[in-house]
From TrEMBL:
Residues 383-794 form the Copper amine oxidase catalytic domain. Belongs to the copper/topaquinone oxidase family. This is Amine oxidase. One of its GO terms (molecular function) is primary methylamine oxidase activity. Its EC number is 1.4.3.-. Keywords: Copper, Membrane, Metal-binding, Oxidoreductase, TPQ, Transmembrane, Transmembrane helix. The active site is at D453 (proton acceptor), Y535 (schiff-base intermediate with substrate). Residues 1-23, 71-91 are annotated as: Disordered. The keyword Metal-binding applies. It is an enzyme of class 1 (oxidoreductase). SUPFAM superfamilies: Amine oxidase catalytic domain (SSF49998), Amine oxidase N-terminal region (SSF54416). Its cofactor is Cu cation. Topaquinone (TPQ) is generated by copper-dependent autoxidation of a specific tyrosyl residue.
Length: 827
C-alpha cells in the first residue's frame, strides 16, 4: 500500500491564482487537441488508402517469395484426414532476406583432372577409336546378335599410383587419362571377352589400344548378362510359354504371356563351371503392366532352365521345368502332360488377384489411412545461412582442411583418391569394390542365388540423385557417365551430391560447475546412390572436423520374394514361416540373404610406407598383463584385484586376413613407423569396422573362392598395380576356376614398412519381414577411419568453439549470423 500524500500548509494561500492558471491551460489544451485530432484522422486516412492499394496489388498479383517460416499456429488437433488446413496466426511484419550464396563449383572440366570419371565425350571418343581400329563389328554400332563384337563396359583406368604421387606431390608430369574397356568379342572364331587400355584421351590421333588380358583368358560364357542375350532368351521362350498357356491361365488368375507376365532370368550364377551357361528363369506378374524391378516381389511357382552357351542361340534349349517345386520335367511338353493328369499338385490363385497387384508394389501414400498429427506441415530442415563452406574444382573437393578427389566407375562404384587432412595424406584410395548377396529359399528357381553386384555394374544408369530425398536441396551435384551396352551409347547421370550436414549434436562437450564447453558436430557428406535391379544402395563418405572419416553403405528398395506355397510338403504345421524366412504377403515369402560390402582402403598415413598393427584387447591375471612388457614374477601390492583388462601390441609381419570376434576383440591400426607424435607414439589411423554380419558359408561351398573377400572383415596385403580390386566381375560365372579373388593376394609377402592396402568388408544379415513390403526401409553398415595418435591433441581447436568459464573472460561462441530465407538455387 502507498502512504497518503503530505501537503505543505503554504499551498492554501495560493489557491486562487492556481485556479486561474489551470483554466487558461485547459482552454489552450482543448484547442491543441482539436487540431491534433483532425491531423491524426487525416494521416490515418492517407496511410489506410496507400496500404489498401498496396495490399490490393499484392493480393491481385500474388507473391513468389513465400519461403518465410510461420512459427506460430492457431490451436488445433492437427491433421487427421488430410483435409485439415492449418491457419497461421498473424505474425509481425519483417524484412525477408535471402541467404547469401555462391556456387561452390568452378569451371574446371572433368577432363582436366587426374581421377575424374570418364565423361560422355571421352566415352564417345573411345568408341570412335575402337570403331576405327575394327575392334567393333556391329552394323551402325548397334548390336543385334551375340555373334558381333561390341563394348560391354568402359570406365576410367586410374593412373599408376607412383605416377599420380609424383604429379601430385613432386611436380612430376601429369598422367594421361585412359579408359578401361571390356569388349564382348562374339565375332571372333573363338569368342571371348577382352579388356583394353585406351588412350590417352586428349586426342584420338595419338591414342593407343593396349590389351590388358590375353585372348581366351576370359571365357565367353563367363560374361555378364546383357540386353542382346536377354532379348534372345525371351524370344526362345515364346514357344514354351505358348505351350503353357492353359496351365498359366488356370493357375494364375487367367494371366497371359507376355501381357500379364514377364520372365526373370537373373537367378545366378549361370552354372558352376567356366565353360557352362545355364540360365535359370522364373515367371512373375507385371504389377505395373510393364516389367519393373518392383515386380520381383510377385514371382510365381513356374520355373525352368535354358542351356545357352556360346553365340548361336538356335542351339539353345530349355529343360528342367518345375511347377510348385514339382519336377524336374525335361521338356515343357512333359510338364503339360503331367499337369493334365491327376497326380500333380496344383495352385489356383483367386479370381481378381491380378488386379490387386497394380497398386501393391507402388510406394505411394495409403489414402485410406488418416494422416498422422501435423503430418501436413513441413518437417524440420537445415540450410546454409552464409552459403557453402566447401568448394569443388572439377571433381576435387575441399572443406575444413580436408581435400580429396571423387571418382568412380560403372562396375565397381564410387571411389575417393588422395585424401588429405591438414596437409597430411591419410589415404590414397578409398573405393567401393563389390557387393555380395547369397540367398536361401525353398524354391526351384531361387535357391542358392548368389549375386556379385559389380558384375551388373554398381554405378549403372539408374543411379540418379533424388533431390530432397537423397540429398538436401542445397547440395552440389556432380555428374558421372555410364556406357549402355545395348544401345552402344554413353549417358550422363546426376549421381554424386556433396553437402555440409548439421549433425545437431555435440562432437565433444563437457559441463562442470565452473566450465562449459562443446562443439557442434558438422561434417561434409559425399553421397552416391546406386540402383542394381530391385535394390537401391546409398554410399556415404562423411568427413569430420576432428579427422575421422566414416564410410557408410545403406540398402533400400524391393526385396526379391519367393512364392508362398500354402501346402508346401517341406513346411511344418506353422505355415507362417519355414527354414528360409517368413511369409510376408498374400503369396510371398522373404528369402533370407545377406549384403556384404567390400571396400578397397589404400591407407597412406603421411606417405606410402606403412605398417599394420593389431592391438589385442584382453583380460586375465595381473601377471599376464605385466609380462607383456617385462619379465616380472610377483604382482605389485597396489593392485586390488588379481584380474584386469590389458592390451597387447602386435606388428603383423606378412599378409593376413582378420575376422571380428567379440570374444577376442582387436583394434586394427595402420601406422607410420618412423613418424611419432609429440609424445613419442607412432602416428597412425585406426580402421573400425561397424559390422553386424560375418560369412557363415563353409569353405567347401562352391562360391567361397570367388567370395573370399566376405570371409574377412579386414585384410592387409602389399599393394600391387595388378591387384586393383578384391574380386573379378567374371568369377561368379566361373566358380570352378576363379582368377581374381582376394585369397589369391594373400601370398605371405612382407608388409612391414611397405605400401599396404586394407580390404575392408562390412555388411548385415537380412531376414525379410512384413515391414519390408512394399519397400525395405534402409538398413546399413559401415566402417570408420579414426586418428590414432596421429595428432598431439584433439584436432578441433583451430575452430570456433562454444566456451564459457566462471570468473574470467574465456568466452567464445560459434560465428553468428542473421536469419535469412534458405536459397532454392541448385548447383
Amino acid at each position: 500500500m502507498f502512504d497518503n500524500p503530505v501537503f505543505d500548509e503554504s499551498d492554501n494561500n495560493s489557491n486562487s491564482s492556481r485556479k486561474k492558471h489551470v483554466k487558461r491551460e485547459k482552454q489552450t489544451t482543448s484547442k491543441c487537441f482539436t487540431f491534433c485530432s483532425h491531423l491524426f484522422v487525416l494521416l490515418v486516412f492517407v496511410v489506410g488508402l496507400v496500404g489498401g492499394i498496396l495490399i490490393g496489388i499484392y493480393a491481385y498479383h500474388g507473391s513468389k517469395d513465400t519461403t518465410s517460416c510461420q512459427n506460430e499456429y492457431s490451436q488445433g488437433t492437427g491433421a487427421k484426414t488430410g483435409t485439415d488446413n492449418l491457419t497461421p496466426t498473424t505474425a509481425p511484419q519483417r524484412n525477408i532476406v535471402q541467404c547469401p550464396n555462391r556456387n561452390p563449383k568452378d569451371d574446371t572440366t572433368y577432363e582436366s583432372t587426374v581421377f575424374a570419371p570418364l565423361t560422355v565425350n571421352e566415352m564417345k571418343m573411345v568408341s570412335d577409336i575402337l570403331w576405327q581400329k575394327n575392334y567393333i563389328t556391329t552394323v551402325d554400332r548397334t548390336p543385334r546378335s551375340l555373334k558381333e563384337s561390341f563394348i560391354l563396359y568402359m570406365y576410367l583406368l586410374p593412373p599408376r599410383k607412383e605416377d599420380a604421387i609424383r604429379y601430385l606431390y613432386h611436380n612430376g608430369m601429369k598422367p594421361g587419362r585412359y579408359a578401361r574397356v571390356h569388349i564382348q568379342r562374339g565375332a571372333e572364331q573363338v569368342p571371348d571377352i577382352m579388356e583394353y587400355k585406351v588412350g590417352p584421351l586428349g586426342s584420338s590421333s595419338n591414342a593407343t589400344v593396349i590389351p590388358l588380358t590375353r585372348p581366351g583368358e576370359i571365357h565367353f560364357n563367363s560374361r555378364p548378362y546383357d540386353g542382346v542375350e536377354v532379348t534372345a532368351l525371351n524370344h526362345l521362350l515364346e514357344c514354351d510359354m505358348k505351350a503353357l498357356e492353359s496351365l498359366i491361365r488356370e493357375s494364375f488368375d487367367d494371366a497371359t504371356f507376355p501381357d500379364d507376365l514377364f520372365i526373370f532370368f537373373f537367378n545366378g550364377p549361370p552354372g558352376l563351371k567356366e565353360g557352362e551357361r545355364e540360365t535359370r528363369f522364373v515367371l512373375g506378374f507385371k504389377g505395373f503392366r510393364t516389367i519393373q524391378d518392383a515386380d520381383i516381389i510377385n514371382l510365381l511357382p513356374l520355373s525352368g532352365t535354358v542351356h545357352n552357351p556360346g553365340t548361336n542361340s538356335s542351339e539353345w534349349y530349355t529343360h528342367s521345368y518345375y511347377y510348385l517345386n514339382q519336377g524336374p520335367y525335361l521338356t515343357v511338353s512333359d510338364l503339360v502332360a503331367e499337369y493334365k493328369g491327376s497326380t500333380i499338385r496344383k495352385v489356383k490363385l483367386p479370381a481378381g488377384y491380378r488386379n490387386t497387384l497394380r497398386k501393391k508394389p507402388f510406394s505411394e501414400r495409403d489414402h485410406s489411412l488418416p494422416l498422422r498429427e501435423y503430418a501436413d506441415r513441413p518437417g524440420a530442415r537445415a540450410y546454409m545461412p552464409q552459403g557453402p563452406r566447401f568448394s569443388i574444382s572439377g571433381t576435387k573437393i575441399k572443406w575444413m582442411d580436408w581435400s580429396f578427389h571423387i571418382s568412380g566407375g560403372q562396375l565397381k562404384g564410387p571411389a575417393l583418391f588422395d585424401i588429405r587432412f591438414k596437409g597430411n595424406r591419410i589415404a590414397y584410395e578409398l573405393a567401393v569394390n563389390d557387393i555380395a548377396l547369397e540367398y536361401a529359399t525353398d524354391s526351384s528357381a531361387q535357391n542358392g542365388i548368389i549375386y556379385m553386384d559389380a558384375t551388373y555394374g554398381i554405378m549403372g544408369g539408374d543411379a540418379t540423385i533424388l533431390r530432397d530425398i537423397d540429398c538436401p536441396s542445397y547440395a552440389a551435384v556432380l555428374n558421372t557417365s555410364y556406357w549402355h551396352s545395348f544401345s552402344q551409347k554413353a549417358f550422363d547421370m546426376k549421381s554424386i551430391c556433396v553437402f555440409e550436414e548439421d549433425g545437431q549434436e555435440a562432437l565433444w562437450r563437457h559441463f562442470s560447475t565452473n566450465f562449459a564447453g562443446g562443439m557442434r558436430n558438422r561434417h561434409l557428406v559425399v553421397r552416391v546412390p546406386a540402383v542394381i535391379g530391385n535394390y537401391d544402395y546409398i554410399f556415404d563418405f562423411k568427413f569430420y572436423i576432428d579427422g575421422k572419416l566414416y564410410t557408410n553403405a545403406k540398402a533400400s528398395g524391393y526385396i526379391q520374394a519367393s512364392f508362398w506355397d500354402e501346402h508346401n510338403p517341406h513346411a511344418s504345421g506353422d505355415k507362417t514361416r519355414d527354414a528360409f524366412g517368413y511369409r510376408v504377403s498374400d503369396y510371398q515369402t522373404g528369402p533370407i540373404h545377406d549384403h556384404m560390402f567390400g571396400f578397397k582402403v589404400d591407407m597412406d598415413v603421411i606417405d606410402s610406407n606403412n605398417s599394420f598393427e593389431v592391438v589385442h584387447w584382453k583380460a586375465g591375471d595381473i601377471l599376464d598383463a605385466l609380462r607383456t612388457q617385462s619379465n616380472i614374477t610377483q604382482v605389485p601390492p597396489y593392485f586390488i584385484y588379481n584380474q584386469t583388462r590389458y592390451v597387447e601390441y602386435e606388428t603383423i609381419r606378412t599378409e593376413a586376413g582378420f575376422r571380428m570376434n567379440y570374444d577376442n576383440q582387436k583394434l586394427f591400426v595402420v601406422v607410420k613407423e618412423n613418424m611419432r607424435n609429440k609424445w613419442g607414439v607412432k602416428r597412425g589411423y585406426q580402421i573400425v569396422p561397424l559390422s553386424t554380419a560375418a560369412q557363415s558359408l563353409p569353405e567347401v561351398h562352391p562360391a567361397m573362392k570367388a567370395l573370399s573377400f566376405t570371409k574377412y572383415h579386414v585384410t592387409i596385403t602389399k599393394r600391387k598395380e595388378e591387384e586393383q580390386y578384391l574380386s573379378s566381375i567374371y568369377d561368379i560365372n566361373r566358380m570352378d576356376n576363379p582368377k581374381g579373388y582376394l585369397d589369391l593376394m594373400l601370398d605371405n609377402e612382407s608388409i612391414v614398412n611397405e605400401d599396404v592396402v586394407n580390404w575392408v568388408t562390412v555388411g548385415f544379415l537380412h531376414v525379410p519381414t512384413s515391414e519390408d513390403l512394399p519397400m525395405t526401409v534402409r538398413v546399413e553398415s559401415g566402417f570408420m577411419l579414426k586418428p590414432f595418435n596421429f595428432f598431439d591433441t584433439t584436432a578441433t581447436f583451430d575452430m570456433p568453439q562454444y566456451s564459457e568459464s566462471q570468473g574470467n573472460n574465456n568466452v567464445e561462441y560459434e560465428p553468428s549470423f542473421d536469419s535469412c530465407v534458405e536459397s532454392n538455387i541448385e548447383y
